[in-house]
Amino acid sequence: MDARREWARTKLELVGEIKKLGFPESLGNEIAVNLGSPKAMERMIAYLHYVKPNKAELIVDEMLAICSDIDRWHKKKMSEEANASINTILEEGL
Question: pTM for this one?
Answer without folding.
Answer: 0.79
